[in-house]
TrEMBL record:
Protein name according to UniProt: Solute carrier family 9 member B1
Ranges annotated as biased composition (Basic and acidic residues): 7-16
Subcellular location: Cell membrane
Domain of life: Eukaryota
Domain Cation/H+ exchanger transmembrane: 118-482
The entry's keywords: Cell membrane, Membrane, Sodium, Transmembrane, Transmembrane helix
Segments for region (Disordered): 1-24
Stretches that traverse the bilayer: 64-84, 96-115, 213-236, 248-274, 286-307, 341-360, 372-391, 397-419, 431-452, 472-492
Single GO MF descriptor: antiporter activity
Cited InterPro entries: Cation/H_exchanger_TM, CPA1_transporter
């Protein structure tokens, strides 16, 4: 028995010996092969790097290649435009002026983005675009060769207004508005109307404006700018500031509604200022235009909500095309037939009604509209800056305009603070909301030139008033946009409570606001 067991054990050991050594041999061989592969790859990588270094200068790579590519692309755009229009893209032509303003405004915005001061929030790029257009208009050599037809400029500004209204309509969230209840309506309607009325009174006594022009100016400067407020609030919301009480959500939702109130009031005052007849007749005509615009927009919005259907391909592109084409036609067409207020209200109603049941598809349409806005934004602010001529300003015009803006802003800040009382906010939070509600940019950039364009076409004797409105709108952007962005960025982290965004629903908070 012993001999047999020993032999079996010996036999088993012989069988197990190869099985125990083979993996070690395979492991060693695989390590050797891996090291050889690494050496080959490293050698190839070093050769590739050396080749790239040799080839980095001829042809150039990286930033130099990108700069040359962009420069040639811009030149080819000019060449294609010249082949179609000839003299229009030469100095003095309309296309030449538009290209120069567009590229200058884009560069101005990029330069302002590059300017970063430690512990100071970034200034809005639209300020650089505005200054670029202002520089082009007031530098003698440039202003001699850059001219843009008033019709072209007006059409582009109205198209930019249409895109702003579409974004405002799509940006309204019915659930957030319902949850925030009356405090959102108070914040959106109250400060705008109070500032419009105070501006009318101040401009009547300081600038000798007639009452209808005073209220028109009031609604121009009474709108807050989502272009400044929304990005600043989103940044605070991402970092958890004020999200427990829904302060960023409140300001984002109210900013779009505030613009709607201002644009509606401006359209009503514009029709009163440029039409003859009694005030009662003009007010009734304005209500008629409002009714027509809202009904037309609601009907078209219901159509776009269901056409195209969910089962079609390229759904986002088709929806965006329908909204853009219908809204631009409504805005430009309403100016052609003399019903100025109809187009804007139709656009707001159409975009809001159409996006109610789109759920996640609404976000994709908003992104596409936002991409188109990036094209029109430099044109809008560049054209607004180019409308302001230092030579045509009176000696005391700037001082009076600044005083008017400053006094109306003080009234707005104080009224906003009072309207936020008994809404569940602390003293510091009410101060922050009041100061965050001062930036002006986008709406002023559209409505100011619109009044000037209307005066040029229909009532040249009213052009001095319209030019003063344009100057106030320009200075309001220049003063409030950078200061508002700085106030929000600096004051927000200091006065707002910070919470973990993952533990709080930032869209619909649990706090009951009254």
């Amino acid at each position: 028995m012993y001999t047999t067991e020993s032999q079996n054990e010996h036999h088993l050991e012989d069988k197990n010996t190869p099985s125990s050594t083979n993996p070690q041999i395979l492991k060693d061989s695989s390590i050797i092969e891996l090291e050889e592969t690494k050496e080959i790859v490293l050698s190839q990588t070093e050769e590739t790097k050396s080749q790239m270094e040799k080839m980095s200068y001829c042809p150039p790579q990286g930033k130099w290649n990108k700069a040359i590519t962009n420069g040639v692309a811009l030149f080819m755009i000019w060449c294609v435009a010249w082949s179609f229009s000839g003299s229009e893209v030469l100095p003095g032509g309309n296309l030449f002026g538009l290209l120069i303003i567009f590229y200058s405004a884009t560069i101005g915005g990029k330069v302002l983005e590059l300017i970063r001061i430690p512990s100071v929030p970034q200034l809005p790029p639209l300020l650089g675009m505005l200054l670029a257009g202002f520089t082009i208009r007031n530098v003698p050599f440039l202003s001699d060769y850059i001219h843009i037809n008033n019709t072209w400029s007006s059409t582009l500004r109205n198209t930019a207004l249409t895109i702003i209204l579409i974004r405002a309509g799509l940006g309204l969230d019915p659930r957030a508005l319902k949850h925030l209840k009356r405090v959102c309506l108070r914040l959106a309607i109250g400060p705008c109307l109070i500032e419009a009325c105070s501006t009318a009174v101040i401009s009547h006594f300081f600038m000798n404006f007639p009452w209808q022009w005073g209220f028109l100016l009031g609604f121009v400067v009474g709108a807050v700018s989502p272009a400044v407020v929304v990005p600043s609030m989103l940044l605070l919301q991402e970092n958890g500031y004020g999200i427990k009480k829904g302060i960023p959500t409140l300001l984002i939702a109210a900013s779009s509604l505030d613009d709607i109130i201002a644009i509606t009031g401006f359209s009503t005052c514009l029709s009163i200022a440029f039409t003859s007849g009694g005030i009662l007749k003009n007010v009734l005509a304005s209500f008629r235009d409002i009714l027509i615009g809202v009904l037309a927009g609601a009907i078209l919005g219901i159509f776009v909500r269901y056409f195209p259907s969910e089962d079609q391909t390229k759904l986002t592109l088709k929806r965006a095309f329908f909204i853009l084409s219908m809204c631009i036609s409504a805005v430009l067409g309403s100016h052609q037939i003399g019903l100025h207020a109809v187009g804007g209200l139709c656009t707001l109603a159409l975009s809001f009604v159409a996006g109610v049941n789109w759920s996640t598809g609404k976000i994709e349409v908003q992104r596409l509209i936002k991409t188109i806005w990036y094209i029109f934004q430099p044109l809008l602010f560049g054209l607004v800056g180019s409308e302001v001529s230092v030579a045509s300003l009176k000696s005391n015009a700037i001082g009076i305009c600044v005083v008017t803006i400053s006094l109306s802003l003080l009234v707005r800040i104080f009224s906003t603070f009072l309207l936020m009382c008994f809404a569940g906010f602390s003293f510091k939070e009410k101060i922050f909301i009041a100061l965050s509600w001062i930036p002006k940019a986008t709406v002023q950039a559209v409505l100011g030139p619109l009044a000037l364009e209307t005066a040029r076409n229909s009532a040249p004797h009213l052009e001095p008033y319209a030019r003063d409105v344009m100057t106030v709108a320009f200075l309001a952007i220049l003063i409030t946009a950078p200061n508002g962005a700085l106030i929000i960025g600096i004051l927000g982290p200091k006065v707002l409570e910070r919470h973990d965004p993952s533990k709080i629903n930032v869209k619909l908070t649990k706090l009951e606001l009254h």
